[in-house]
Specification:
- This protein folds into 2 domains: 110 residues, Immunoglobulin-like, CATH 2.60.40; 58 residues.
- Helix content is 39%, strand content 32%.
- The strands form 3 sheets. A 6-stranded mixed sheet has the order 2-11-10-5-6-7, with no helix packed on it. A 3-stranded antiparallel sheet has the order 3-9-8, with no helix packed on it.
- Strand 8 and strand 9 form a beta hairpin.
- It is rod-shaped and about 135 Å long.
- One of its GO terms (biological process) is filopodium assembly.
- Its main location: membrane.
- It is found in: Membrane.
């Protein structure tokens, strides 16, 4: 679905105007979240990318909310301090634009990530990123492959067993038929001799 050139131009003008107003007005702060949904696999590094702008000095705070509860990840003031929570101490890298990188994600890292940018004048803005974390399915595929190989081996053994049974039955049937034929021939000969 293509957008009309006039619509695209209008959106561009509006976004430029919003940024200009945020930068020129005291207490104005803006936040752009380019990707609201991130899919990751276990042990992957992910970048929670944002871009904030404001006139004064801002404080950036990230929180993680999931079924396990709410955890404060990090808080920092531009050009001042960085306060990373002990749970994330070796797993988080902060960037001046407000983004963070989360290293070695696990299943517990899935959930909502909330960023709050608060300017020194007290104005603030919020953003949200949803992170989905999936387990690597190589172990499941390995199990399926082993199970398939086992079932194939059992099927091959059963086919061989059925073939041997069929062969034995055929030989038994042949011997029985041969014995019956021989006994019938003897009876006919005896009857002939008696006559």
């Amino acid at each position: 679905k293509r957008s009309h050139p006039a619509q695209h131009g209008w959106c561009s003008i509006m976004s430029t105007l919003i940024i200009f107003l945020c930068l020129s007005a005291p207490g104005g702060v803006s936040l752009v979240v380019p990707q609201h949904n991130i899919n990751a696999t276990v042990a992957q590094n992910i970048l929670l990318s944002v871009e904030y702008s404001c006139r004064g000095i801002a404080t950036v705070e990230w929180k993680h909310v999931s079924s396990w509860g709410t955890t404060k990840i990090v808080e920092w003031r531009s050009g001042s301090y960085v306060n990373i929570s002990t749970v994330y101490k070796d797993r988080v890298t902060t960037f001046e634009n407000g983004s963070i990188q989360l290293l070695n994600v696990g299943m517990k890292d899935a959930g909502y990530y909330f960023i709050t940018v608060t300017e020194e004048y007290g104005t603030n803005t919020y953003g949200t990123i949803i992170v989905n974390v999936y387990e690597i399915i190589y172990e499941d595929l390995h199990f399926v492959a082993v199970l398939f190989a086992f079932l194939a081996a059992v099927a091959a053994i059963l086919i061989c067993f059925m073939w041997l049974c069929n062969k034995s039955l055929h030989l038994f049937h042949k011997k029985t038929t041969h014995k019956l034929t021989a006994s019938t021939t003897e009876e006919i000969e005896l009857e002939t001799m008696e006559c």
